[in-house]
Amino acid sequence: GLYTICLTATNECGDDVTCTEILYVTTLKTTEAVTQVSCFNGQNGSIIVTPEGGLPDYEIVWEGPNGFASTSFELTGLSAGIYKAFVSDAHGNVVEITHEITQPSEIVQTSVEVINEVNGNGQGSVHPEVTGGTGSYTYLWSNGADTKDLDKIGAGSYTLVVKDENGCEKTFGPYVVENTVNAENV
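Above: the chain sequence. Below: its structure as tokens.
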């Protein structure tokens, strides 16, 4: 704040008062709350900046990926990338902050084994392997099954929706299980 300090000198000639205004400013700093993107190629990251100290009337200027620019203290809807800001106060102090918004890796299928049924025996199966995303997965097949592997199925086309702990989904397939005919049984 602004303080007035006065010095009074008294002697046989009288009092002489000299006053000076002093501006006391604490160090400008910031605190930030950062939320990372929850899904691959998502746009739900955020950065909220709270300035402290310095001399109020704060301003902020952001730059980021793909020409991103903003003058807001609350950024939402961010995609992955590096965001840099300059926060200034009314006294001209400047603080630079940088945050990287990250994202999980994409949920991808690394392999799949499709076993056809033989002579309509209903013993076909699909065994996919997936990686990426966050945490463990839940599975939902187009026939309603909720297991990782689809076993004891007949000929047909099957798709799989994989969801991670953040609710990120990826659809795989269609996987085609065919009915093969064993020549010995013809």
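The mean pLDDT is 94.
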